Amino acid sequence: NQENVNITTSGRCLETSKDSNHFSNDKSSVTQKRGIQTSKDGRVTNIPPGMVTDQFGMVGLLTFIRAAESEPKLVSLALGSDLTTLGLNLNTTENLYPNFSRP
What we know:
InterPro entries: CCR4-NOT_su2/3/5_C_sf (IPR038635), Not2/3/5 (IPR040168). This is CCR4-NOT transcription complex subunit 2. Residues 1-24 have low confidence and may be disordered. The chain starts with a strand and ends in a 33-residue tail after the last helix. By secondary structure, it is of the alpha+beta class. The protein has a domain at 46-99. The chain has one helix at 58-70, and strands at 5-9, 12-16, 21-24, 37-38, 44-45. The strands form 2 sheets. A 3-stranded antiparallel β-sheet has the order 1-2-3, with no helix packed on it. The protein has 1 helix and 5 strands; from the N terminus they run βββββα.
């Protein structure tokens, strides 16, 4: 069971624990190796036990959010988009995946 979680974005570190919640602008806190770590090549390490690790779980969401921050042009579908406004019939019995664009 992991009690501390660090989330880093743009040099800021949000550290949560049982005892405290605070933001730190100290760049040295970013070098700590606690919490989920993602590398530039897309590898995800230091995953807490019990975390869903497939691309549709929390790690996939974290990777998506970080990609959206650094490369907004690569993200073609924003979180929270209503797929019916894109012309998808969600009530169909046919597969929807042929309607999605590919890289």
